[in-house]
Design a protein that fits this description.
Elements (H helix, E strand, L loop, with lengths): L12 H4 L3 E10 L3 H12 L2 E6 L8 E8 L2 E8 L5 H9 L2 E9 L2 H10 L4 E10 L2 E9 L5 E6 L12 E2 L14 E8 L5 H12 L2 E6 L10 E8 L5 E8 L6 H9 L3 E8 L3 H10 L10 H9 L7 H7 L2 E5 L2 E10 L7 E8 L9 H14 L4
Parallel strand pairs: 1-4, 5-8, 10-13, 14-17
Antiparallel strand pairs: 1-5, 2-3, 2-9, 3-4, 6-7, 7-8, 10-14, 11-12, 12-13, 15-16, 16-17
Bound molecules: fe (ii) ion (FE2).
Fe (ii) ion binds next to strand 10 and strand 14.
């Protein structure tokens, strides 16, 4: 499937020096890992492949590993009140704790990012079991979010040492067909976008892929600014900050409920968004609604592109184009207990953008939800 990454000509050299190979997994810290993993399976078509907990020798937490094609997420919850996970879930609610990156050499990547100014949270550690060895090392990023480097070229097990292969009863429902993590988006506080973009440039050697200012991303009520940083290949991370508007920005609402910067949304790539969204809707997933008028405007904007308009309008899929091609996308309602993190489903047909042409329609839909919560 074409991704942003396939079109990169010159890789970012200082990112390459870290030996980054892509997203390895996300780890969610949640109140009830069994229930959240079950929701990802029944709603979004994931499958449980591995488990760790007291039965496997871990006495403070349980984790389920869920996968769908190249997407791998770990869902973890604490087993007691003294756990660091309990404190974080109390602060943030359910959310993404770790954006783990696969690397060639975890110790070398860790040493290099510390030399470039990152804060180390866990020095390189070798984990092994009968399936081989993995090296992990962790550094801090925005809020309580972290990046773990995972070196797994010598490992054959279901996830990491300490996990055992596991399944949950298969959820009935049509195949969804989500393939990859296209991008992972963070929200940071007002005035701090530049600091975090600088952090990813300086420490990770990332390039700026694109920037949107509050003129481009504003509605009648609220505004935000966004810069997309990436490693020049497969790791694409937009960062948003709120901008002053007439009322409360959706980014401020996120920061209030999450209690700090954190992951706002995860975009999941598919090669057939019509089939994917039809399956997700049949499985009970709810999406932001777009007004019918959106499609009149969109047909004009997309003149010359052959699209299944009736299906798109029926399913609420949004469309956008740039000079490289077009993309189709849709946004879920928030998926945690608090109105914080949500998912995007995206199909790229050449386009490298992020749906700029949809921001206004999208944000107006988000604001309708905000208004229902009394936060606009
Ligand atoms: Fe996105």
């Amino acid at each position: 499937m074409p991704t942003v990454a396939d079109q990169r000509v010159v890789p970012a050299p200082r990112a390459q020096a870290l030996g980054l190979l892509g997203f390895d997994h996300l780890e969610w810290w949640v109140g009830n890992a069994r229930a959240f993993a079950g929701f990802l399976c029944s709603g979004f078509g994931f499958e449980v492949v591995a488990y760790a907990g007291p039965e496997t020798g871990r006495d403070d937490r349980i984790s389920y590993v869920v996968v769908q094609n190249d997407i791998r997420w770990v869902v973890t919850s604490p087993l007691g009140p003294a756990s660091a996970i309990t404190a974080q879930v109390a602060t943030h609610g359910d959310g993404v704790h770790d954006i783990a990156l696969r690397v060639r050499d975890a110790a070398a990547a860790y040493d290099e990012v510390l030399r470039r100014g990152a804060a180390g949270l866990r020095p390189p550690e070798v984990l092994d079991d009968r399936d081989g060895r993995v090296v992990v090392a962790t550094v801090a990023t925005y809020g309580d979010t972290q990046h773990t480097f995972v070196e797994r070229s010598e490992y054959d097990g279901p996830f990491l040492p300490g996990f055992e292969a596991a399944t949950l009863p298969q959820s009935p429902g049509p195949v969804v067909g989500l393939d990859v993590m296209d991008h992972v988006v963070g929200n940071v506080e007002l005035g701090h976008l530049g600091d975090w973009v600088g952090f990813y440039e300086r420490v990770f050697g990332f390039d700026q892929l694109t920037h949107f200012d509050d003129e481009q991303i504003s509605t009648e009520y609220s505004a935000l600014m966004s810069t997309v940083v990436w490693d020049g290949s497969r790791i694409v991370m937009p960062i948003n900050e709120p901008a002053p508007g007439r009322r409360k920005s959706q980014i401020e609402e996120y920061l209030d409920y999450y209690g700090s910067p954190g992951v706002q949304h995860i975009a999941l790539g598919t090669t057939d968004i019509v089939a994917a969204v039809r399956a997700l809707r049949q499985r009970g997933v709810r999406f932001l609604e777009v007004p019918a008028a959106y499609y009149e405007e969109a047909r004009d904007r997309m003149a010359g592109v052959d699209l299944p308009w009736a299906d798109l309008a029926d399913l609420g899929v949004l469309v956008d184009r740039d000079h490289d091609g077009h993309l189709l996308q849709i946004f879920s309602e928030t998926v945690a207990g608090r109105p914080t993190v949500f998912f995007e489903i995206i199909q790229r047909a050449g386009a490298r953008g992020f749906g700029e042409g949809n921001f206004k329609a999208l944000f107006e839909a988000i604001e309708r939800e905000q208004e229902r919560r009394g936060n606009l």
